[in-house]
Write a sequence for this structure.
């Protein structure tokens, strides 16, 4: 197959409609990888316009601009020092022999619990910062065989034991759609990195939502395949019953191409060798010319939260259901009496984590610590994990709790399969989470429960971008189907993608210009009240989406001052609400750093932010003073 035909075969010859990034989100002014899809990158390499080395350099530039600078996402823990050399070798091989396949020369990232013989595999633990296993994890070896370039490793929730991505090695990671918030977890670094175009795609792992939650929080696609479809060999475990490894990507086709490279039987992971497992010859080819017409979707109403704090996410999910109907799908409500209570008691993680982590460490005597107790005993873990990990020290598979949880899992699985069959459903649908991503360092307990419908049953689920809520944050939903229905789930997700085009790049990591991110901008506003004048200067930090505020002197007695407020006017210029109090009654200092929501950022760009000075002389405010560029 020629170079040009290979790139075309990924989409056209497979009757796959590959989404192209919208013009506002495509490669711009030299940033050749921004929001770029794998088939597009292959086309450019096939045509000689780009090389794999170009891609590596471009992704490295974005990581340099945004991972510890700009929004400071803290998504990448290790960069492969040989990435450029490996890309050069693949470029030479392409020239001499042609490409190996659709991933030839494509840079990807790995969650740091995937074993790599040439880089540390920390699983987010300070105790394992220098640990290098003797060989690559099976999925990593398969990516290398497919010609992918391993660009580096991503941050993760320590030992994969949570959903916010905090660890004793790397601290807190952040969400590019709001750097004050979590990227989800435990594959939060992989999610943030793919959303920020730090790589073409990434691998994560999912024990209860750890692929799908970061996908939902960052407007991505993520697949938790049926247990046994892909090997877990070489991945640091958390719970053998619930662990899987799989991809996150910005498009369904990219997700399927990653599955093509990584799925398959592996004698090192016995669950993958079951002869009953069904895998297509190609997940990408199985997508076909997808649409939603004729699909019968069951809405799992037990998974839709009635809580007040979830209503923004519920609104987004309701829009999803309306759009599914508009695109020709039949949407029916499904209720499973008692399932919500069963779900709460379905996890086996607390009973398996100690035994499975210890088993892994026993197999790797070169590791710096030799058991979970050893790690905890030396204080080599983050304080946020302490209670949960210590509970795990005292539990095991021999307990009645473990046996009870397994019985509950079997019951839920039977309920879902019976419902799918009896109601002739193509798939079930439910929100991944109806709650906003938690603020970094905030308590997220109780925020996530829907991960277990797939994790507790071993059934496949694909996370799909649902859209954005009124605060500008992304939400996701899932399609869940019977065992080995991944091709159907990919077709549903691709039909949604083609119809809705839900992907939107994060504001904090735009296309680089000449290899650099956007610079800070200065604004000035002069507020007046009666005869008093107050000059306010602002510096806009584009990476954080924040305004740093400095106020000049105000020649008024403190008792005359009511306050200085920052307002957002509407598109017609009418007065809008207060979004920040810059000065408080009596002249006290107010907010000096204002984090802007999406509507505020849009208003700043459109010149619709105003300050107003409120005094005893003008208690309803002086004339609105616009923020103007420059000091």
């Amino acid at each position: 197959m020629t170079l040009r035909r290979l790139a075309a075969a990924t989409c056209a010859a497979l009757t796959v409609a590959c989404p192209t990034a919208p013009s506002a989100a495509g490669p711009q002014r030299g940033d050749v990888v921004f929001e770029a899809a794998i088939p597009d990158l292959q086309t450019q390499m096939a045509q000689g316009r780009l090389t794999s080395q170009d891609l590596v350099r471009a992704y490295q530039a974005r990581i340099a601009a945004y991972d510890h600078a700009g929004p400071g996402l803290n998504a990448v823990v290790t960069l492969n020092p040989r990435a450029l050399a490996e890309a050069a070798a693949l470029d030479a091989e392409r020239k001499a022999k042609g490409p190996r396949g659709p991933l030839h020369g494509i840079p990807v990232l790995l969650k740091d619990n995937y074993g790599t013989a040439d880089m540390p595999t920390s699983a987010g633990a300070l105790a394992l910062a220098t640990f290098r296993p003797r060989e690559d994890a099976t999925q990593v070896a398969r990516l290398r065989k497919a010609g992918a370039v391993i660009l580096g490793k991503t941050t993760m929730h320590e030992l994969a034991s949570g959903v916010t991505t905090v660890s004793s090695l790397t601290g807190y990671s952040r969400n590019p759609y709001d750097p004050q918030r979590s990227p989800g977890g435990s594959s939060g670094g992989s999610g943030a990195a793919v959303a920020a175009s730090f790589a073409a795609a990434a691998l994560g792992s999912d024990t209860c939502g750890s692929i799908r939650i970061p996908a939902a929080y960052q407007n991505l696609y993520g697949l938790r395949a049926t247990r046994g479809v892909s090997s877990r060999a070489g991945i640091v475990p958390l719970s053998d019953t619930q662990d899987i490894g799989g991809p996150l990507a910005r498009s369904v086709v990219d997700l399927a191409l990653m599955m093509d490279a990584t799925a398959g039987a592996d004698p090192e992971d016995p669950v993958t060798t079951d002869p009953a497992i069904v895998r297509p010859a190609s997940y990408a080819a199985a997508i076909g010319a997808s649409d939603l017409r004729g699909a019968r979707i069951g809405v799992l109403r037990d998974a839709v939260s009635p809580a007040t704090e979830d209503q923004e996410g519920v609104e987004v999910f309701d829009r999803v259901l309306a759009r599914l109907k508009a695109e020709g799908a039949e949407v029916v409500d499904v209720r499973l009496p008692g399932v919500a209570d069963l779900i709460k008691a379905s996890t086996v993680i607390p009973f398996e984590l100690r035994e499975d982590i210890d088993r892994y460490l026993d197999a790797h005597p070169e590791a710096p610590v030799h058991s979970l107790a050893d790690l905890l005993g030396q204080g080599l873990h983050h304080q946020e994990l302490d209670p949960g990990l210590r509970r795990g020290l005292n539990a095991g598979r021999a307990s009645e709790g473990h046996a009870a949880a397994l019985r509950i899992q079997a019951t839920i699985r039977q309920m879902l399969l019976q419902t799918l069959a009896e109601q002739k459903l193509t798939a079930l649908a439910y929100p991944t989470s109806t709650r906003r991503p938690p603020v970094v360092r905030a308590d997220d307990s109780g925020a996530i429960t829907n991960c277990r419908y797939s994790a507790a049953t071993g059934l496949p689920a694909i996370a799909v971008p649902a859209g954005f809520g009124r605060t500008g944050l992304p939400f996701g939903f899932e399609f869940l189907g019977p065992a080995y229905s991944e091709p159907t789930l990919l077709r549903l997700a691709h039909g949604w993608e083609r119809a809705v085009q839900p992907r939107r790049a994060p504001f904090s990591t735009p296309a680089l210009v000449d290899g650099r991110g956007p610079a800070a901008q200065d604004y000035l506003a002069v507020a007046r009240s009666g005869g008093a004048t107050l000059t306010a200067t602002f510096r806009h930090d584009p990476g954080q989406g924040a305004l740093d505020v400095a106020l000049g002197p105000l020649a008024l007695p403190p008792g005359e001052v009511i306050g200085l407020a920052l307002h957002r006017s509407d598109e017609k210029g009418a007065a809008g609400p207060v979004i920040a109090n810059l000065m408080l009654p009596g002249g006290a200092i107010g907010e000096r750093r204002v984090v802007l929501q999406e509507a505020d950022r849009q208003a700043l760009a459109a010149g619709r932010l105003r300050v107003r000075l409120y005094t005893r002389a003008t208690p309803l405010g002086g004339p609105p003073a616009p923020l103007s560029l420059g000091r």
In short: The first strand starts at residue 76 and ends at 79.
